[in-house]
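I am still getting used to backbone structure tokens and would like to learn alongside you. Label the sequence line and the structure token line clearly, so we can match residues to local backbone shapes. Go ahead whenever you are ready, and we will take it from there:
>
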Amino acid sequence: MALGILALGMTVIWRRAGREAKRLDWLDVRFGFLREIGRCSGKPVLMDPEGDYGHPALGFGFDVAADRVVLLADPLARQRSPRSHRLMLRELRQCFQWLRCVALSKICPTGVPHRSDRLLHMTDDPIETQTPKRRITDPAEALFALERAIPGLVDHRRSAPAALDWALVEENLGTALPSDYKYLAEWYPTFAIGNYILVGLPEPGDEPRVHRGFQSTLDVLVDAWLEPDLGLLAYPAPGGLLPWSESDESDKFMWSTAGGTPQEWFVTVAGRGGAWWHYAGGAVQFLAELCDGTLEPWGLRIFDPEVTPC
């Protein structure tokens, strides 16, 4: 019964959001959202933009003792850049998208939405493109940067590079792959970073089946993520997206296959909430700069760069 009341309350809030949005009067809707979540959890509630924790998007929050929304924190809006403002607004919009999912009864027995690959679509334009100071083109240098960024990674390095039949993998897939990715796969088995990002890599003997894994992920991408109206197409469309990794929260890490050769491909990140952005470098350098804090983790959660073999 409690879940039914919660779903009904959130449905009311969502319907109200639609009316309020037309008048650009969002305050009552925001406060209603915080109030319902606070009453359900029995805890104070503040709203931080994803990837910018500790900096509340709103200074107001739900106070359990007062049973109402009050000023609980000083919002750091005055210190935000225009880019951070756009991120904050995007995250607020994603909160309401999530609320709509809850209102449509996508609730599990614990009151938490089911994790699945049917996620919020990639929305609007990308947040921005993050560009490295220098794009690393040498695979060995890129791997060294990753090993430096992740403590303990080198402990799992093979004593000699694995002999993988890349010609077979690439023939089945229909494209060559970036040299940094192949170099990483030759020196390391599949591993996870921070129990968050799974870096799946082919093993010797798996070459005839590697393309099936890529295809399975592509099918999910087409079915549940991409918005063709935004020009977001999956490989093998020209410049299409080809996933190479994902997180345990179903964030996607992909190559944008634009460019003359795979060495010119760049990384596209799609957060589970719908926010997406580009990184103008290769996959291994991306992981290195994400783990060492060089990149802003837009739409991703904060994690410890520790390696776990899989």
